[in-house]
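Check the record.
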Amino acid sequence: MMDLIKRLGLNKNEVGNQSHIEVNTSICKTCIDKPCIRVCPAETYEEDKEKGITVHYERCLECGAALYACPFGALEFKYPEKGVSYIYG
């Protein structure tokens, strides 16, 4: 059985021209813990002192972890235009 890191390396991510993740920055500014940053395996979310959260959507694996971790519902996700192709060996 292939480990997680090797399996993730098989994903082909074709990034669109705009983010598929919307962030309600007014909510993020009030969030102290920023759980979306801690749970995201792709480091898609980054703390920004002015905006609350910066999103690097091109890194997203579409796993949904940050959506579930956010206690305030500040993240909105739409499937990306091009998406991810999973290649299993």
